[in-house]
Design a protein that fits this description.
Beta-Lactamase; 5 domains; about 850 residues
Length: about 850
């Protein structure tokens, strides 16, 4: 159809206007249409065939921002953004063909802003065009918001689900699909109650009743089932869905899977409880002074604070083989009264407890009902609600003497952390039993020593004449009361005097020769006057005998008053007959004193080991709890808190290393540290230690070279102590090398046998060479002394106790080897460890 557009400034057609105003299309006399035109809520436009606007109602003028006079005469392209000539022609063609025309156009207001309108166009009887325009911009905005909300719902990690009031699912987002494993097409139209565990369905119905009343239920914990039947712990909120009239028509639920969060919270609580239990066990070890009280306290702590169902400690009876309980907690049903548990191979000895005793290892059974070896006690397990057990050996002097037996009321209870706790508790019990045994032995030794000392004092004081004991320098070590009474000198004065001070000047040369004879030949005698404090002299016959005390020669002497010759001769004969016996008794007394001194030294070392252990226990707790905080299991940390806690853990670990060094040295000095004799691959150990030191070398900017091309085969010795020595030597080399290289080399030395029947000895020689600061020649003698640090200027930059090399040297000696060092100041050092590859065990 042809179109003719009238110019925008052409006057209106007189036939289409009344008194200069466009006519409204209406039938003659039908004013009701004029009223409809004026008051319609939709916009109405009248245009001629050339798309020139002839009239517009107030609603249309309000949409466009024009008054009617401004709008009349405008062309469609003046207000319609899409009104290009081609579009207008297509529109008119469609209308002329009688097709219904309905589409959305974008209009331009007078102020230049745009809005979307839904347009319906039709012909009027007079040939003009009538258009109805509805502003749909608000509807599109609402649809856009709705689409955005839908996108948010679909992309949410939480499950967002809606149902009607009968529980039928009406929406199911992707979060719900991921959480439950059910696809949306499976759940739409299905009842939501199928995902609610049976025991929670009544609670879910009460929530729906609250929703019906228009109430929201916020943030409650519940459980939901997945497609595979697995129960998830979820945090859920439920809100009512209302229609336009405010009536509740459905339920909207938002659920978040908090299973992992609850697991972490439970794990944190579990770890906290375990560390607290271990701390209380160690407190019991410190404060309980008897075996019975200690073992009972440990059982009580494990049940009351560790939440174990039952705990008992038993020791095998040597005659019957039965494991007899000595401490019990939690046996409320009399399990141990009926359960006969043995340590031998009979059926009643094949359970966890019997195995732990025979095999000297931890035995875990996480399902007692399914364990074939637990058949003899299965009915007792059921009655006493025992589902899992752990049996751990307790040692005394390194030998298994009993078991710690722990039970839980749920299967699968004993996991890594529980097992580690119980093994440490069993180790602490063993440590405590050894300490109690040593303490008991110490007390017995002190009682024996006291009795012997009393006997010795009584014997010395009851002997006739004077008795004394001094060393090669003439320093008095002991004397009887008669010596002080006869001479008139006090004990303090005698302690400061020399044996020759008790004789006049004329007699001293003879006495000096006789004293020399005692030390040179073993004994001597002399008759000489004893010079008293008041100047008087008393004739005495003296005998002396040489003895060895603490590796040094000493003189035991006795003097008899010979003022009355007969009495003196009789006494001398008696003295000669009994002297050797008395000297022997005195020697034994001195040996006892030596034993007491050794015992005191061992007590000192044992006390130091005990205190080191007690220091180590809280440090382990500090390190454990700090690790929990750094992992974020107790809540998020800011950067500064993370930094400070990291410093706490680093300092605690360093202090623990120092305490371990002190503990190792004290055990070595007390003769309590034993080395193992078992085969291991030294090359593998060397590579493992070297690999562990790579991060430290890279941090210090030092090149670490490894020259191990030999195949040493198996070595017979203590692998852990071997690696400890090597780790210490490498750590020292890296610590004191500011730049340069550290080289670890190994070689096997074959030594020829001394005789033809002996076999060749193979020796492993390890060298750790560095290009560090080196050691002065005058400092080399102090290098391996405990608590001795060489002040090289560089050492003060590093922490340490000076025990590392001392411990290494002693460990090497225990393993039959040596450590030597060659160093040049400012050029570097080389430490060489030499160990036998196949050392024969010491018989």
């Amino acid at each position: 159809m042809a179109m003719h557009r009238k110019p925008a400034d052409a006057p209106p057609d007189p036939e289409s206007s009344v008194h200069g105003r466009p006519r409204v299309v209406q039938g003659p006399g039908e004013n009701r249409y004029q009223v409809l035109f004026e008051h319609a809520t939709v916009g109405i436009l009248v245009a001629d065939q050339d798309s020139i606007y002839l009239d517009a109602n107030p609603s249309m003028c309000g949409m466009l921002g024009y008054v009617r006079e401004e709008l009349v005469g405008l062309h469609a392209s003046d207000i319609v953004v899409e009104a290009a000539p081609g579009t207008i022609e297509a529109t008119l063609d469609a209308i002329d063909c009688g097709h219904e025309y309905l589409r959305a156009w974008r209009f331009r207001r007078k102020d230049g802003t745009l809005f979307d309108g839904e347009v319906t166009v039709t012909h009027l009887p007079d040939g003009n065009l009538l258009a109805f325009v509805r502003d749909i911009s608000d509807r599109q905005a609402a649809e856009k918001i709705s689409r955005r909300l839908a996108a948010i719902v679909e992309s949410s990690a939480d499950a967002i689900v809606s149902t009607d009031l009968d529980g039928i699912v009406t929406s199911w987002n992707r979060g719900a699909e991921r959480m439950t494993g059910h696809a949306a097409h499976e759940m739409l139209g299905a009842p939501l109650i199928s995902l609610v565990p049976e025991e929670l369905r009544e609670s879910d119905r009460r929530i729906v009743e609250s929703i019906r009343r228009g109430e929201s239920v916020a943030h409650f914990e519940t459980r939901r089932l997945t497609r595979g039947g697995h129960a998830l712990i979820v945090s859920m909120s439920a809100s009512p869905i209302m229609d336009a009239d405010g009536a509740v028509i459905g339920v909207s639920r938002i659920a978040r899977d908090i299973t992992a969060q609850k697991h972490n919270e439970d794990e944190l609580a579990r770890l906290t409880r375990l560390y607290a239990v271990l701390s209380q066990i160690n407190q019991a070890i410190v404060w309980k002074t008897t075996r019975e009280a200690l073992l009972q306290e440990i059982c009580d702590v494990l049940v009351e604070h560790g939440r174990f169902h039952m705990v008992w400690i038993g020791f095998p009876d040597a005659q019957s083989g039965r494991i007899v309980p000595v401490a019990v907690c939690g046996d409320y049903e009399g399990y141990l009264d009926e359960a006969g548990i043995f340590a031998d191979e009979r059926a009643e000895g094949r359970g966890p407890t019997g195995k732990a005793v025979r095999e000297a290892r931890t035995v875990i059974c996480n399902d007692l009902q399914a364990d074939a070896d637990a058949v003899p006690w299965r009915h007792l397990f059921e009655r006493n609600r025992l589902r899992a057990s752990a049996a751990l050996p307790i040692r005394e002097n390194g030998i298994v003497c009993g078991t710690l037996n722990v039970y839980a009321d749920e299967p699968g209870f004993f996991r890594d952390k529980e097992i580690a706790l119980l093994e440490e508790a069993a180790g602490d019990i063993s440590f405590a039993l050894d300490n109690l045994a040593r303490e008991s032995a110490r007390k017995r030794a002190e009682e024996v020593a006291g009795a012997e000392r009393h006997f010795s004092d009584t014997m010395i004081e009851s002997m006739p004449g004077v008795l004394y004991f001094y060393d090669v320098n003439g320093r008095f070590l002991r004397w009887n009361r008669n010596f002080s009474v006869v001479t008139g000198y006090s004990g303090e004065e005698i302690a400061r005097m020399h044996p020759l001070d008790f004789f006049a000047g004329k007699d001293k040369p003879l006495l000096q020769r006789r004293i020399a004879e005692v030390f040179d030949h073993g004994d001597s005698f002399v008759e000489a006057p004893l010079l008293c404090k008041d100047g008087s002299e008393i004739p005495y016959f003296f005998t002396g005998r040489r003895i060895s005390w603490e590796g040094a020669p000493c003189l035991v002497g006795m003097g008899i008053d010979v003022s009355g010759r007969e009495r003196a001769e009789a006494a001398l004969r008696e003295l000669n007959e009994t002297l050797e016996h008395k000297v022997h008794e005195r020697t034994q007394e001195l040996q006892v004193a030596l034993v007491r001194a050794d015992a005191a030294d061992r007590v000192k070392s044992a006390f130091l080991a005990t205190m080191s252990h007690e220091l180590r226990t809280p440090l382990n707790s500090i390190i454990g709890f700090t690790g929990i905080l750094l992992q974020g299991m107790a809540g998020p940390l800011n950067t500064e808190q993370h930094k400070q806690l990291g410093m706490v853990r680093t300092s605690a670990r360093h202090l623990l290393e120092l305490i371990n060094d002190v503990l190792d040295l004290s055990r070595i000095e007390a003769g309590q540290l034993e080395t193992r004799m078992e085969p291991f691959d030294p090359v593998e150990s060397i590579r493992r230690v070297a690999n562990s030191m790579i991060p430290q070398a890279e941090k210090n900017g030092v090149a670490l070279h490894l020259d191990v091309s030999v195949a040493a085969g198996d070595m017979l010795g203590d692998r852990r102590r071997f690696e400890q020595i090597l780790l210490n030597l490498l750590s020292n080399a890296l610590k004191f090398t500011v730049e340069g290289t550290v080289t670890l080399s190994a070689q096997v030395i074959e030594e020829s046998p001394i005789d033809s029947e002996a076999r060749a000895q193979s020796t492993l020689r390890l060298s750790v060479a560095d290009t560090g600061i080196g050691i002065r020649t005058e400092d080399l003698d102090d290098l391996f002394r405990p608590f001795q640090q060489i002040d090289s200027g560089l050492t003060r930059m590093h922490e340490g106790t000076g025990l590392g090399l001392a411990i290494c040297q002693r460990l090497a000696m225990l393993m039959g080897g040596t450590i030597t060092v060659v160093s040049e100041w400012h050029k570097g050092s080389t430490f060489t460890l030499t160990l036998p590859l196949h050392r024969e065990p010491v018989a």
